[in-house]
Write a structure and sequence with these properties.
The protein has 238 residues and is of the alpha/beta class. It is built from 9 helices and 7 strands; from the N terminus they run E-H-E-H-E-H-E-H-E-H-H-E-H-E-H-H. The strands form 2 sheets. The chain has a 5-stranded parallel β-sheet with strand order 3-4-5-6-7. Strands 1-2 form a two-stranded antiparallel ribbon. It is globular, with a radius of gyration of 19 Å. The two termini are 31 Å apart.
């Protein structure tokens, strides 16, 4: 991790509560000392950066890219990056990342429906910026993985289908459709608790990867929704 904190206010995310809204960056020298030491000591062949906002500050990013290019170790961003940072020089940014060894970028998009992004997630993202970003990243030479979340409170079945369709038409190389989980400390968690939106006989104690805890429009049980999301992942990635 090169930084902690995130200025965004997505309703499903715990980062602002955990790390705050102010970004704190490590120096490039400090980061590279760690990478160089560990790659030599442990024979590491790839670096994965887990920052929530590694592309937020382009000067920090470019400084890091300059040093990574000298080192020659492949890297990627499995934790996701915001789609609409630095739109005017996005192609240049992606090319700098690719040239320094970034072989795959993950774009955190979450939904293919503007209403869901605006009203339910509070994510400052316009959908018209998504397809061009994917195209630019691929043109720069990177694979593009994408993050999506299904099952927000008040999201309709039709909107979930639109998100899947939007994703599969995006030109991305791979997809992760996740089931919304109401993480404690988030606005969505408070809504679920206040309105008692849990599936019957499900609670936070049942939180596992791909487990559904919150009632979803258009589905009669958590198992039915889990099968729907798993099927969507298989369909998209095949």
């Amino acid at each position: 991790m090169c930084s902690r904190g995130c200025p965004e206010k997505c309703t499903f995310c715990t980062t602002p509560q955990m790390w705050g809204s102010n970004i704190r960056w490590r120096s490039t020298e400090h980061i590279m000392d760690e990478i160089k030491n560990d790659s030599k000591k442990y024979n590491i062949g790839e670096i994965q950066f887990l920052d929530d906002t590694i592309t937020l500050h382009k000067q920090h990013l470019y400084s890091l890219c300059d040093e990574l290019e000298k080192l020659g170790i492949p890297w990627c961003t499995p934790n996701g990056t915001k789609v609409n940072y630095h739109l005017k020089e996005q192609m240049h940014m992606y090319q700098r990342m690719s040239d320094s060894g970034c072989y795959q970028i993950t774009l955190a998009i979450e939904s293919g429906v503007q209403r869901v992004l605006d009203d339910l997630i509070k994510k400052n993202l316009q959908l018209e910026t998504v397809y061009p970003a994917i195209e630019k990243a691929k043109k720069a030479g990177m694979l593009v993985h994408t993050f999506w979340i299904l099952g927000y409170p008040d999201e309709t079945y039709e909107e979930m289908q639109k998100t899947i369709e939007f994703a599969m038409n995006s030109g991305a190389d791979s997809y992760s459709f996740a089931i919304l989980n109401p993480l404690p400390g988030t606005p969505i968690y408070r809504k679920v608790v206040k309105e008692n939106l849990w599936w019957e006989n499900r609670s936070m104690d049942d939180m596992l990867y791909r487990s559904s805890l919150v009632k979803v429009n258009g589905f009669s049980s958590p198992e039915e929704f889990e099968k729907f999301v798993n099927k969507s992942n298989v369909k998209a990635n095949l």
